[in-house]
# Entry
Amino acid sequence: MTIQLNSDIKKIFICALSLIIFLSFASCGKNIAFQKSSVVPAAQGKVSVKKDSNKNNSIKIEITNLAEVTRLQPSKNVYVVWMETEDSVVKNIGQIKSDTGFMSSKLKASFETVTSFEPVKIFITAEDNADVQYPGMQLVLTTNKF
# Structure
């Protein structure tokens, strides 16, 4: 009887531990690296997407070695961050300014936003205006679909 009870307690403990591990990984979100860029080859970055307490998607981007947008050929005014949704809709979700307020001498940039849409891909273009409705042709960084 004691051996059976110990065995049952071990099974319950293993199941509980497995559930805790699964839930901790499920709540971590996604960390996705940007692909290498042909426009700004030294640029490296990552995107973090996770659900917040309101079931919205929190998107955080960190980039290093991102050249100032005015140094690109052709020169542009802003970097615009885009999100592709699971319904293949592309949305402008904000801009990364390439001035001294957002970028240090080491060319670091970050971006954060919250959206109710489910992203499947994040990409950045160089644009003349931040309020454009459709991405231009100068793709700077992109993730694979996730």
In short: The chain has one helix and eight strands. Residues 29-142 form one domain. The two ends are 50 Å apart (CA to CA).
